[in-house]
């Protein structure tokens, strides 16, 4: 029996999802997108998990869409138009599920993250990259502008830098990605797993309800004008303050003791 293309391992309130088609550089094939959607749906309903790590096996984190699969779709009577529209719509759906998940999602990136693979990194809430990792939205090099990856990329890095990457197809290294804000930090390759797990453990140790409230509010307010964002965020804090465990957390801080969270 073949290994699953996407695996999940839970430990210490953290779920690790692993893209597991190394022979295809963990490409976002139709099957991989379906597997990710299923996994995200399960996580959305799972209140035992407080953080998620997304990683890949083999030489690369993710090399984007499966070009061989895409080319095969051209055999359809419409030349593949319907298949392409469906592919990009399903990919967009999966990418948008990440910020909507109640748990923070951390990309653990190594090797390369290209095109839709770079989009996947940009869609995650946080990212840690190994030294030597390369990032690119390089579709333009083969005549396919990375328009859907552009959506996530341009919401992560400065506009002119994103446009240069998109129009030149030039790769950037991990340290440039950190400087631009695409990843949170760069670590030696041998420390990638431990550093990512340490970040996930730090997040998972917080009051889950507060983090869930905060993540949802983060993405909601960032789309609002400043005055509306403050009004919205103020009510979010009121709602957060009314939680029993928030009361307990504040009391514990004032009493200099560990909170007794339910």
Strand residue percentage: 5-15%
State the major sheet. Answer: 6 strands, mixed
Taking the alpha carbons of the first and last residues, their distance comes to: 42 Å
Relative helix content: 40-55%
**Estimated structural class:** alpha/beta
Radius of gyration: 20 Å
What's the CATH architecture name of the largest domain?
Alpha-Beta Complex
CATH-defined superfamily of the largest domain:
2-enoyl-CoA Hydratase, Chain A, domain 1
Beta strand count: 9
Helix-strand topology string: EEHEHHEEHEEHHEHEHHHH
- Tally the structural domains: 2
As residue ranges, the low-confidence spans are: none
CATH class of the largest domain: Alpha Beta
Number of helices: 11
Strand arrangement, largest sheet? 1-2-3-4-6-9
CATH third-level topology of the largest domain = 2-enoyl-CoA Hydratase, Chain A, domain 1
* Overall residue-averaged pLDDT value: 97
Shape estimate:
globular
Organism: Gemmobacter megaterium
InterPro entries: ClpP/crotonase-like_dom_sf, Enoyl-CoA_hydra/iso, Enoyl-CoA_hydra_C, Mitochondrial_ECH-domain
Protein name: Enoyl-CoA hydratase domain-containing protein 3, mitochondrial
Function: May play a role in fatty acid biosynthesis and insulin sensitivity.
């Amino acid at each position: 029996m073949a290994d699953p293309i996407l695996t999940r391992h839970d430990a210490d309130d953290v779920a690790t999802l692993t893209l597991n088609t190394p022979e295809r550089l963990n490409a976002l094939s139709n099957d991989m997108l379906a597997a990710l959607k299923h996994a995200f749906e399960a996580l959305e309903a799972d209140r035992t998990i407080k953080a998620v790590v997304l990683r890949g096996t083999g030489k690369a984190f993710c090399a984007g869409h499966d070009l061989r699969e895409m080319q095969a779709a051209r055999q359809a009577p419409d030349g593949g138009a319907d298949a392409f529209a469906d592919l990009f719509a399903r990919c967009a759906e999966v990418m948008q599920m990440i910020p909507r998940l109640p748990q923070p999602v951390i990309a653990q990136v190594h090797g390369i993250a290209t095109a839709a693979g770079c989009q996947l990194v940009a869609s995650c809430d946080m990212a840690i990259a190994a030294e030597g990792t390369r990032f690119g939205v390089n579709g333009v090099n083969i005549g396919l502008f990375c328009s859907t990856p552009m959506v996530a990329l341009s919401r992560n890095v400065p506009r002119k830098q994103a446009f240069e990457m998109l129009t030149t197809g030039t790769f950037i290294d991990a340290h440039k990605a950190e400087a631009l804000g695409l990843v949170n930090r760069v670590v030696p390759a041998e420390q990638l797993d431990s550093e990512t797990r340490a970040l996930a453990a730090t997040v998972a140790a917080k009051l889950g309800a507060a983090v869930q409230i905060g993540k949802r509010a983060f993405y909601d307010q960032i789309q609002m004008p400043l005055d509306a964002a403050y009004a919205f965020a103020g009510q979010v804090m009121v709602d957060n303050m009314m939680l029993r465990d928030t009361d307990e957390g504040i009391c514990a801080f004032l009493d200099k003791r560990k909170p007794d969270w339910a």
